[in-house]
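quick one
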Amino acid sequence: MTGIAVLGSTNMDLVAYTERAPRLGETVTGREFRTVPGGKGANQAVAAARAGGDVLMIGAVGDDPYGDLLRAGLERSGVDTGLLHTVEGPSGTAHIVVDGTGANAIVVIPGANGTVTALGPGEMAAIAGAELLLLQLELPLSAVIEGARTAHAQGVRTILTPSPVQPLPPGLLDCVDLLVPNEHEAAELSGFTDPRAAAQHLLGRVPAVVITLGARGCLYAARGTDPVRFPAPEVTAVDTTGAGDTFVGTLAVALAERRPVPKALAWAASAAALCVQRPGASASMPYRTEIEAA
Ligand code: ADP
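structure w/ adenosine-5'-diphosphate:
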């Protein structure tokens, strides 16, 4: 059984590429426009499904055309969308301006994601029956906490990506088995910029932490053991968007399959390294055969 439930966001990213971003009150003519399915929840679901997981997405899209596109995209990657509700109003959107240097400015409008404030009996039953629950912080915190509590009460392991980073209520962290921040999020949550110090601090609140370190790999720390650094494969990165979500989604599959942690982390790093060598976020996430081959 590799049942992975993802309680999280689904967004359409609306990306405008331009030489120079406009100042307030200014209009510029850009180069290119793309709509890209995103949202950290949906991205992790796609990564896990492509890696061979049996994945159920819990959340909401709007009753606009983006909602249909987002659902269809998840289903194409093999994600079960039976608990991805369609609600009245717009889907979540991220309005992204990317300038000639690759720097971006983003406005996120939660839309349908913002309506997921509590879980119904169907969602609770699905979480209770899963092997593992993936959580991020792009849904209302009330739902994230309820999901984590439901999982914890049933002995379902939980993995939290603390993004967008914000102060975490103890009630949430008490129900988290594995926290996976990137190094910026780890620094923000712990007050320590050194990943080892950050990990030590975070172990006071959760039993295990993986701090992702971009091209430098990751640091794994669990209570009662010394932190261990795992390198990332050396590759030429063309677009690192979605690397963290690929890492977490793939890691979840390996852990659900009961692979030992070092093997699971190596597998996740291989998948993330494949992702960064191709443009796009969810589009660049690798399938199981590719990860096995790497
Ligand atoms: P996020 O995308 O959330 O900011 P990171 O940048 O830390 O997270 O990347 C997550 C994981 O993706 C890393 O731990 C690593 O395994 C992989 N990764 C990211 N960038 C690279 C890179 N340039 N080369 C190889 N692997 C990478």
